[in-house]
């Protein structure tokens, strides 16, 4: 069999024993996918499917069985015999050698979940089970190993090498190049980045020495001849307010790092990475890309494994190209994510030098304070003798509570909602009393419109008492989790809706639009993914979700970044930054089931 055939992707339909018949879901695999890896994929896919519960790793045993049953048949199956059990060391091709012979609308994998009490197994078994199912750590370790084997940071920053890494390798850096390699705001993963941007807007006056140190560094950046790095480094230290030291490791030599250590401790933490080019366009690599490559390699070291498992590894990247400088932030999840926090800032002489010097000095002061903020964060974690614990939710937002009408409620994130490749800051979580919820972060959210419909059961019930301001210029809204979006029921591969259920969903959506329109509101983004199909009193009903675009008719406008793809089929005059109109909702309603 050719490599192209063995690496081709196809879907297996899975079903968790004991679930409702409609809760089947797809997992994408290749013939060479290990069954152990398939188990991780099943946990991920299930947890992203809005089924109202989660497959968890602690004290949970998951067994996989090969079956061939229709949706209705599989819901009635007991536990299959051992001859149908699937083994972790096998590959998918050991069970399905020819994907073309897998029947549609049949279930191939039956998942049986068993909760094990501590008395049922040896502690070593618990450790192995947790390790087996901790997909985040496995993926993170795989990424770290990939960077060990990758070219040096400087070579990897060359355009052709970087392009290949982003398009074809297992270790792309999510820095927005290309667009598909973009992730949600890093401000959601650690407070340091929002602290930095907040400090940029602070009005307190830097002292005279700070102005002098920054001005001296700015003058050095404008030199027409390359300035000795030892001189530039000293000036940067004065401007930054923190020591910048060399830290050469295999395949990685930066122009300096700000690293924290503690006496008698072998552990260190990187707070900032510096990369310097004499001028833009004079080298073979982009200093901004090289900074990202350096961060990835520093934090991928074996010595950093403990901190990688305990934190999202927040760090700043200072990219300097002649008289230009950009400040970025980075986190290490199950992938490396790097995002600019400033534009490229001119460091040279400026016609309005006073204002310019004040702005750049404010930037350096904000960065100095943000690095100090990181010192406070890392310091307890790198003390001698500290035993770091694994933070299993380190790829989830640091905001872990919501204010409700009855007080603060703690949240435990269980995964992202939807396709893992989608750039959507939407998560599933459990409240402290066991209720499944959706936590949505958005640039704008019409909370009152959601409240209006929720009062009539035409939108999910809200736990939040308001759209709460959080990091990254976002608001947070928490609502109950139930049902599936309408797009799961439509199309040739959808679950399908009986005529009576379709009519009821239509009636509910129409009622929701009528209520909004009566209050001079336009929903704006009426598509199947934003219609929720929920069960109530034994029948299916419709609700609207996602009120990010919703606003007053004629005043609210479509977002500048709206997707104008013809495949969506917007109303003729529904375009970027144009006013929302009620007839736009009516137009999209009439094609909702088409």
Automatic annotation (TrEMBL):
Span of domain Protein kinase: 412-594
Signal peptide: none
Stated name of the protein: Protein kinase domain-containing protein
Gene3D superfamilies according to UniProt: Transferase(Phosphotransferase) domain 1
InterPro entries in UniProt: Kinase-like_dom_sf (IPR011009), Prot_kinase_dom (IPR000719)
GO molecular function: ATP binding; protein kinase activity
PROSITE patterns: PROTEIN_KINASE_DOM (PS50011)
């Amino acid at each position: 069999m050719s490599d192209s055939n063995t690496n081709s992707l196809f879907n297996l339909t899975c079903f968790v024993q004991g679930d409702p018949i409609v809760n089947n879901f797809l997992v994408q695999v290749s013939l060479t996918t290990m069954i152990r890896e398939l188990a991780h994929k099943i946990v991920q896919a299930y947890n992203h499917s809005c089924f109202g519960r989660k497959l968890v790793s602690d004290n949970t045993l998951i067994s996989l069985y090969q079956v061939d049953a229709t949706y209705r048949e599989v819901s009635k199956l007991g536990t299959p015999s051992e001859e149908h059990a699937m083994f972790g060391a096998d590959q998918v091709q050991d069970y399905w050698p020819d994907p073309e012979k897998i029947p549609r609308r049949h279930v191939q994998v039956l998942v049986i979940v068993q909760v094990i009490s501590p008395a049922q197994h040896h502690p070593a078994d618990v450790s192995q089970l947790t390790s087996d199912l901790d997909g985040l750590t496995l993926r993170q370790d795989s990424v770290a190993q990939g960077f060990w084997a990758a070219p040096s940071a400087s070579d990897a920053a060359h355009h052709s090498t970087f392009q290949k890494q982003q398009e074809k390798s297992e270790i792309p850096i999510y820095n927005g190049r290309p667009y598909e390699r973009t992730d949600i705001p890093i401000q959601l993963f650690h407070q340091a980045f929002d602290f930095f941007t907040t400090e940029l807007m602070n009005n307190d006056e830097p002292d005279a020495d700070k102005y002098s140190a920054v001005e001296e560094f700015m003058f050095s950046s404008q030199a027409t001849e390359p300035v000795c790095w030892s001189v530039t480094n000293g000036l940067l230290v004065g401007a930054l307010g923190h020591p910048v030291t060399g830290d050469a490791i295999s395949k990685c030599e930066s122009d300096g790092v700000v690293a924290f250590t503690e006496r008698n401790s072998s552990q260190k933490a990187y707070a900032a990475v510096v990369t310097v080019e004499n001028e833009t366009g004079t080298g073979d690599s982009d200093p901004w890309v090289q900074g990202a490559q350096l961060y990835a390699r520093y934090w991928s070291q074996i010595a950093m494994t403990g901190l990688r498992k305990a934190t999202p590894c927040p760090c700043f990247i200072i990219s300097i190209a002649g008289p230009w400088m950009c400040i970025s932030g980075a986190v290490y999840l199950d992938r490396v994510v790097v995002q600019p926090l400033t534009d490229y800032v001119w460091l040279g002489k400026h016609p309005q030098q006073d204002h310019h010097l004040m702005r750049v000095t404010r930037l350096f002061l904000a960065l100095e304070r943000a690095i100090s903020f990181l010192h406070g964060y890392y310091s307890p974690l790198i003390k001698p003798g500290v035993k770091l614990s694994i933070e299993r939710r380190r790829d989830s937002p640091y905001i872990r509570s919501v204010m409700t009408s009855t007080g603060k409620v703690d949240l435990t994130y269980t995964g992202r909602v939807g396709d893992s490749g989608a750039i959507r800051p939407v998560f599933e979580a459990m409240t402290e009393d066991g209720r499944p919820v959706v936590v949505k972060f958005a640039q704008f959210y019409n909370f009152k419109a959601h409240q209006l419909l929720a009062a009539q059961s035409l939108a999910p019930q809200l736990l939040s008492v308001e759209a709460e301001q959080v990091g990254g210029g976002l608001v947070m809204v928490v609502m109950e989790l139930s049902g599936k979006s309408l797009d799961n029921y439509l199309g040739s591969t959808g679950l399908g809706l009986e005529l009576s259920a379709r009519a009821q969903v239509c009636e509910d959506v129409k009622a929701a639009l009528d209520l909004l329109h009566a209050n001079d509101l336009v929903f704006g983004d009426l598509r199947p993914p934003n219609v929720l199909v929920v069960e109530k009193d034994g029948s299916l009903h419709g609700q609207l979700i996602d009120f990010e675009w919703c606003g007053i008719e004629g005043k609210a406008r479509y977002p500048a970044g709206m997707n104008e793809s013809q495949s969506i089929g917007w109303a003729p005059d529904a375009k970027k930054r144009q006013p929302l109109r009620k007839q736009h909702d009516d137009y999209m309603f009439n094609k909702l089931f088409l």
